[in-house]
Amino acid sequence: xxxxxxxxxxxxxxxxxxxxxxxxxxxxxxxxxxxxxxxxxxxxxxxxxxxxxxxxxxxxxxxxxxxxxxxxxxxxxxxxxxxxxxxxxxxxxxxxxxxxxxxxxxxxxxxxxxxxxxxxxxxxxxxxxxxxxxxxxxxxxxxxxxxxxxxxxxxxxxxxxxxxxxxxxxxxxxxxxxx
Length: 179
What we know:
disordered C terminus; mainly alpha; DUF4126 domain-containing protein; single chain
């Protein structure tokens, strides 16, 4: 029997589910696995989300403003995995969008239940959720712990050297306004 990370569909669903937990993490891991342009900027976005998610003003992922980016990113992540594997199955990106949405909707309920049942503080559950998302996402993207460490180091280096804004523009077209 194949493990989910050994098939195109399985990897796409794992990365889409990770995207439902942390909207920037799935795209960052896909980009990192390709060694593509803009990967440092996406890694910085994912790292920032890991921090911002713990703050009290962070929007709920199950509200429309929190859910829509996850659904779109889940679609994109699954589409990219399918494309990289030369799959023409049109259901993979749609299933990715659904996986991201379901994960985003179910995860807060699980966090609440675990917190209430075991009296675990929400930030601790959030950190455990981060670790799970990083583990499953890196497994699906074929990245090692060393790859993640190098990516984080490279991303922080780009930030220190002021090269992040051009990378965002390169990756996202006109994501940020020109000066």
